[in-house]
């Protein structure tokens, strides 16, 4: 009888050794951190071949990250720009990113091209959504770095995912230090995650915006052209009604098409570059010329009248 009771107890009592091992067999939850090893490999490779600019190490919270600072060569500082690369690229990517960071200094702009948080090569796009907060912290650290150099006129230039991360940071934080935002090849992937919904983010940005893309850009960029433009104009109407304006700060003050000043509207310019692909291959000079002219007009004191287009 005693043996039967023991046998029954064994049937209804969980076996400790088995239950402890069961969770290990389950799939591990996805990591929400950057791939630090990948960042380190890229940083080492870039340092070995870096010709223009200075490799610097910045800190965001407890995390260190790589960046390249290139001081203006003109002798007349127009301002500084933080350059944010796209998915699968880095701060010295030969297509677009390197030309931007090395050519703008020749025109009076000091550049800081930063390493954004990355995921492993096989990661799905949706896995990048968890990196947006980390990216925002890095952008804030980049701004502080430029300010430590005595630069007060600071803008963000982002390409593809970098543009989405920049738009997210500006929309959520309203940083007073940022005077302009250039989004290159901005797409829209709200089905993946709300933070990829660039048009929605543009509705909450009240500084000058340059939305520039190529006629042969990626599909998600081209299909959201109208949505981005309409979002910016909805934002303009909201700001106009709220009458948020400042006498000398360029951000909230714009002029209408006929040149007469109207308060509370944010400037927005959308430009399509004919023949350009997502990286503006072969058209980098034209892209940089457009960006330089826009930055000079809309973020410096040379022209206080801004056109809404």
TrEMBL record:
<protein>
    <recommendedName>
        <fullName>AB hydrolase-1 domain-containing protein</fullName>
    </recommendedName>
</protein>
<dbReference type="Pfam" id="PF12048">
    <property type="entry name" value="DUF3530"/>
</dbReference>
<keyword id="KW-0732">Signal</keyword>
<dbReference type="InterPro" id="IPR029058">
    <property type="entry name" value="AB_hydrolase_fold"/>
</dbReference>
<dbReference type="InterPro" id="IPR022529">
    <property type="entry name" value="DUF3530"/>
</dbReference>
<feature type="signal peptide">
    <location>
        <begin position="1"/>
        <end position="19"/>
    </location>
</feature>
């Amino acid at each position: 009888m005693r043996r039967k009771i023991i046998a029954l107890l064994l049937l209804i009592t969980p076996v400790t050794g088995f239950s402890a091992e069961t969770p290990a067999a389950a799939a591990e939850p996805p990591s929400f951190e950057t791939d630090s090893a990948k960042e380190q490999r890229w940083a080492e490779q870039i340092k070995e071949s870096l010709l223009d600019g200075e490799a610097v190490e910045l800190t965001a919270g407890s995390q260190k990250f790589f960046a390249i600072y290139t001081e203006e060569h003109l002798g007349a500082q127009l301002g500084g720009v933080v350059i944010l690369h796209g998915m699968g690229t880095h701060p010295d990517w030969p297509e677009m990113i390197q030309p931007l960071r090395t050519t703008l200094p020749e025109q009076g702009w000091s550049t800081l091209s930063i390493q954004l948080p990355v995921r492993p090569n096989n990661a799905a796009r949706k896995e990048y959504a968890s990196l947006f907060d980390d990216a925002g912290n890095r952008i804030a650290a980049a701004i502080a770095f430029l300010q430590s150099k005595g630069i007060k006129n600071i803008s963000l230039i982002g390409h593809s995912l970098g543009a989405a991360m920049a738009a997210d940071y500006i929309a959520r934080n309203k940083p007073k230090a940022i005077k302009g935002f250039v989004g290159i090849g901005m797409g829209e992937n709200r089905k993946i995650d709300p933070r990829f919904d660039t048009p929605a983010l543009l509705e909450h940005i009240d500084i000058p915006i340059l939305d520039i893309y190529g006629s042969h850009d990626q599909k998600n960029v081209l299909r959201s052209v109208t949505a981005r433009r309409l979002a910016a104009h909805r934002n303009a109407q909201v700001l106009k009604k709220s009458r948020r304006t400042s006498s000398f700060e360029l951000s909230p003050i714009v002029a209408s098409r006929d040149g007469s000043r109207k308060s509370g509207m944010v400037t927005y310019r959308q430009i399509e570059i004919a023949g350009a692909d997502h990286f503006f291959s072969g058209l980098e000079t034209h892209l940089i010329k457009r960006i330089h002219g826009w930055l000079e007009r809309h973020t410096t004191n040379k022209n206080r009248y801004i056109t809404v287009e």
